[in-house]
Amino acid sequence: xxxxxxxxxxxxxxxxxxxxxxxxxxxxxxxxxxxxxxxxxxxxxxxxxxxxxxxxxxxxxxxxxxxxxxxxxxxxxxxxxxxxxxxxxxxxxxxxxxxxxxxxxxxxxxxxxxxxxxxxxxxxxxxxxxxxxxxxxxxxxxxxxxxxxxxxxxxxxxxxxxxxxxxxxxxxxxxxxxxxxxxxxxxxxxxxxxxxxxxxxxxxxxxxxxxxxxxxxxxxxxxxxxxxxxxxxxxxxxxxxxxxxxxxxxxxxxxxxxxxxxxxxxxxxxxxxxxxxxxxxxxxxxxxxxxxxxxxxxxxxxxxxxxxxxxxxxxxxxxxxxxxxxxxxxxxxxxxxxxxxxxxxxxxxxxxxxxxxxxxxxxxxxxxxxxxxxxxxxxxxxxxxxxxxxxxxxxxxxxxxxxxxxxxxxxxxxxxxxxxxxxxxxxxxxxxxxxxxxxxxxxxxxxxxxxxxxxxxxxxxxxxxxxxxxxxxxxxxxxxxxxxxxxxxxxxxxxxxxxxxxxxxxxxxxxxxxxxxxxxxxxxxxxxxxxxxxxxxxxxxxxxxxxxxxxxxxxxxxxxxxxxxxxxxxxxxxxxxxxxxxxxxxxxxxxxxxxxxxx
Length: 599
Ligand SMILES: [Zn+2]
Fold this sequence. Notes:
alpha+beta; 27% strand
């Protein structure tokens, strides 16, 4: 088990060095852990604030049910005076106002601040409340940073010093039962304390660029005057969360602390490539832990999936995910799921970049951490790296390629993902075309891009049929899926121009068996809306994969936009393809073109 933890630790370190190269200012949040402990326990009636004592306690290293009283302590080194920060001005006496709002002081059901208490109350749908006390003064460690070997020495010093003022027994309310489940009975060990530093140097964090960690790395237990111990060398050995980066301010710190606390709930590990769509997010970009993913909430028993029956066609209505917990699951087997969440951004904890239905493909769904692919509605692609210019370019659609959220490549120690240092935009953080809706991309099938193909080899399609205010109506199809659904969005390859009168728009052929033809639409107006595009009155046979646009390109002074749709035998038409914009380049006497995803 110790070996495992070392491997985990090394993996985290590797991730860190990558992360640091990527973005030295996106802090890495990491933890490592192992081994759960068992402790004998007597039963005692619970005092859970909300009557749901039936709920299974699924927290791994901390309770996930009921109320958890904690203490938050803020600290600044005297030699941190050189660090400038508006959010936290250096002071030996004053704490910034926001520090006092990080948690609620009581279990009253009132949430004036969108803080950690509100976060976990919302995510747990009223089943868990993290509340407690904030030590009112800023703690100044006795010495400058260079005096200490590591932050664990400082943590030890602070916790020991506070023993005279703080009754630590208030923070011991839970213990782990024989079955590994938490019980609200004290066990002589403090449950969780948070120490937040304004800032400190990497050296103190064992030369790592971590922001936080779900343990204090105490080398010895602290035996307090209050009859309880503080034991926090590892995740499983009693708990403490420490973090630096207080200088960045409230919202940043809230999500860092929530993420670190998440390690106590779930264990070590991260859910990669779910930037802004989960709490336990990993790369390719950091500082992106937000409202919980439905996998996470259901793992803790805080929400339940609505399972879709696999053998029949079903119509479903899907409500806002974050505020209602409503999420549908297509459970192909224990390990492979598809999940649907409708993000309407009604909650401040919903940081999705798009509004609409997100589709997730989950593998290893039975354990933490699962592997999750956000099936971005703007498709999967081939990407190319221009090593010389150190740029990453999206080239052609490829349903077995990568999305803008999960592309990662390292060439000659340079990391490439979809963020601005190397890419046209910051789509690695998600973008406004990731969710499915009725107009941008409304179909997810075995032949669409992205496609519903899966390891379990179960054919199905999801069609977004209708929007009803904040809700969506969908069909989930297992039988006669092509007859019962619209054809998929055509995938444009490029423009090919070999002679002045031959400007070819090329696309990949649609694969629906009931395909009839393609339609072509165009606009000669600058920035015209897709719905105002005119249809060119020609029928493009289903076997065609290109069309000569030269008849449209008579006015060389104009920008011309074109898009195509696919059309099936039962008269159903797909959404529009990406738009291709053409402008005449008088220097080389050719039409320049670019792909536009949205207007
Ligand atoms: Zn982490």
